Amino acid sequence: MTDDDAKSPRAKAAANGRPPCPICGAKMTPAFRPFCSARCQDVDLHRWLSGGYAIPARPEDDDDEADRPPPPETES
């Protein structure tokens, strides 16, 4: 087994000068850019639609300032 055989598809594609498919790492096909096939395009679309690429965030308070009571008055 040579060094080229041991390289992953992603490493081979990167060494070829073309970015690899972000889903499987195979050589990118111009017709499906940046993917290698329609299947990988569909896998990526499913991840987007199912929320797989969502960035977790903390819930925000939805209080409006109009709903808040006025601050207590201080005596000077």
Query: What would CATH call the class of the domain at 3-49?
Result: Alpha Beta
Mean pLDDT: 81
Helix and strand composition category: mainly alpha
**Beta-strand proportion:** under 5%
Major sheet: none
Residue windows where pLDDT falls under 50 for at least 5 positions: none
Oligomer: single chain
CATH topology of the domain at 3-49: Erythroid Transcription Factor GATA-1, Chain A
Portion in helices: 25-40%
Compressed to H and E, one letter per element, the order equals HHH
The name of the CATH architecture of the domain at 3-49 is 2-Layer Sandwich
| CA-atom Rg in angstroms | 25 Å
Walk me through what this model shows:
The model has no long low-confidence stretch (mean pLDDT 81). This protein has a domain at 3-49: Erythroid Transcription Factor GATA-1, Chain A (2-Layer Sandwich), CATH 3.30.50. It contains three helices and no strands. It is 30% helix and 0% strand. It has helices spanning 3-6, 9-15, 38-49. The longest helix has 12 residues, at 38-49. It is elongated and about 75 Å long. The termini are far apart. With 76 residues, it is mainly α.
